[in-house]
């Protein structure tokens, strides 16, 4: 019996007990978030064939009640036509119309469309995976001039400022210092993922207008992170050849759901822009999300878009303390279930190999804080996990850097290695 293991466990339990006392309200909030997440689903779609660029387009969500269809909510699609709603179990009707005269209601002759009949949009109480898969199918509206497809319901939009924000952001232009990337929002995404979704949604943001002559490089942050952490590495790229994109998501959600959504987003961007190659760069837990996404994209969808994968400080074996958190914490953050070393998610990301199709450049940090609890780590992730043999065997290049978990994103050597990886592929 190793004394050090018992001391580590004791420190963890003491830390967890203190956390429970100090952060009781946080865990109560988390419990409410998880309950809402379990009963909530996403309806995501796209409006096409908009006649006039200066028109507002409204997507209306009607819920089927005993007394008939009732307006449940409405939203304005983003610039690409994407819209979304968060709904509970039930039966719904989706209708869209183009408000050409800006009076916030549908008038005869204004283009309109509906997605199926009311019984076609049903959110069942079945398994979350199946419900989410159904919710991610394309609710595509082709608008044309005809009568409003649903009779006897209101089409008047009174308060546009109360429109539901779109959950999905695709190709929106931002800069690194946009308030949405503030550190506090990364924490919200970890502890309150549903609150994050309702406030900010999730998406792939552009730092500059799309340029078909430049190769997209997608950056994926880790737990509690935001895209701003990538600024220095992204700025080190040759902006004559590459264009940085950033994926922003609530890191407290189940990672399978996150990688599925990411895959759907990339496929939609391919439809919109027609690019045929890209690179993926990930940090920490984002590496697990990215590998899962890449396998879905490559194996399940047969896409050869991703040409290179670079990861920094990823817990390839999982995080041992996540299992203790699931067992002992008052409430477990959903993503903890997936980063637990024996989780199905960890097993699934090694079900298929990246080699020889996609070269993986694996970088790990070894500058720990030398404390008993975090010994042999980069201060956050154990070196043993960063160097899981399954990931090493599937990588074309493995290198350690004398950096901690966050400084590795600011290191000049990291930037040099990143550019070396891209030079070898593109």
Which secondary structure elements does this structure contain, and how are they paired or packed?
Elements (H helix, E strand, L loop, with lengths): L2 H20 L1 H16 L1 E8 L7 E10 L2 E8 L6 E6 L2 E10 L11 E5 L5 E3 L4 H8 L3 E4 L1 E2 L22 E6 L9 H9 L1 H8 L1 E5 L8 E6 L10 H5 L6 E7 L6 H19 L4 E6 L1 H16 L5 E7 L7 H9 L7 H4 L4 H5 L11 E6 L17 H4 L2 H5 L3 E5 L10 H14 L1
Parallel strand pairs: 1-8, 10-11, 12-13, 12-14, 14-15, 15-16, 16-17
Antiparallel strand pairs: 1-4, 2-3, 2-5, 5-6, 5-7, 6-9, 11-13
Helix pairs in contact: 4-5, 7-8
Structure class: alpha/beta
Count of strand segments: 17
Distance between the termini: 51 Å
Low-confidence stretches: 1-22, 128-136
**Amount of beta strand:** 15-25%
Query: Compute the gyration radius: what is it?
Result: 23 Å
The outline comes out as globular
- Order of strands across the main sheet: 10-11-13-12-14-15-16-17
Share of helical residues: 25-40%
Average pLDDT for all residues: 84
The tally of helices reads 14
**Main beta-sheet annotation:** 8 strands, mixed
């Amino acid at each position: 019996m190793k004394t050090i293991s018992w001391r580590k466990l004791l420190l963890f339990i003491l830390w967890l007990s203190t956390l429970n006392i100090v952060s009781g309200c946080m865990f109560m909030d988390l419990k409410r978030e998880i309950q809402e997440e379990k009963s909530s689903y996403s309806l995501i779609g796209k409006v096409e064939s908009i006649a006039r660029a200066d028109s507002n387009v409204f997507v209306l969500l009607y819920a089927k009640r005993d007394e008939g269809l009732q307006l449940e909510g409405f939203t304005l699609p983003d610039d690409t036509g994407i819209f979304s709603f968060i709904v509970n179990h039930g039966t719904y009707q989706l209708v869209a119309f183009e408000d050409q005269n800006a009076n916030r209601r549908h008038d005869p002759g204004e283009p309109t469309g509906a997605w199926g009949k009311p019984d076609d949009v049903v959110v069942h109480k079945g398994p979350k995976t199946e419900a989410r898969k159904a919710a991610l199918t394309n609710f595509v509206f082709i608008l044309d001039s005809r009568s409003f497809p649903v009779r006897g319901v209101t089409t008047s939009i009174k308060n546009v400022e109360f429109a539901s924000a779109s959950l999905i952001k695709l190709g929106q232009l931002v800069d690194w210092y946009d308030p949405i990337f503030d550190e506090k929002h990364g924490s919200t995404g970890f502890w309150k993922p549903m609150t994050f979704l309702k406030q900010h949604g999730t998406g792939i943001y552009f730092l500059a207008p799309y340029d078909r002559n430049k190769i997209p490089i997608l950056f994926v942050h880790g737990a509690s992170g935001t895209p701003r952490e990538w600024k220095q590495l992204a700025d080190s790229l040759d902006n004559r050849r590459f264009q940085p994109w950033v994926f922003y998501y609530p890191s407290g959600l189940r990672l399978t759901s996150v990688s599925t959504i990411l895959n759907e987003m990339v496929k939609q961007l391919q439809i919109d822009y027609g690019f045929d190659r890209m690179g993926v760069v990930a940090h920490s837990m984002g590496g697990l999300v990215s590998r899962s996404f890449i396998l879905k994209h490559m194996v399940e969808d047969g896409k050869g878009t991703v040409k290179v994968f670079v990861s920094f400080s990823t817990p390839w074996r999982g995080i041992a303390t996540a299992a203790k958190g699931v067992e002992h914490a008052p409430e477990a953050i959903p993503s903890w279930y997936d980063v637990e070393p024996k989780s199905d998610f960890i097993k699934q990301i090694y079900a298929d190999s990246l080699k020889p199709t996609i070269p993986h450049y694996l970088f790990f940090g070894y500058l720990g804080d030398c404390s008993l609890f975090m010994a042999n780590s980069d201060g956050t992730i154990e070196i043993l996990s960063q160097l899981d043999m399954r990931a090493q065997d599937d990588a074309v290049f493995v290198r350690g850097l004398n950096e901690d978990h966050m400084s590795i994103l600011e290191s000049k050597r990291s930037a040099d290695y990143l550019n070396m990886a891209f030079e070898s592929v593109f």
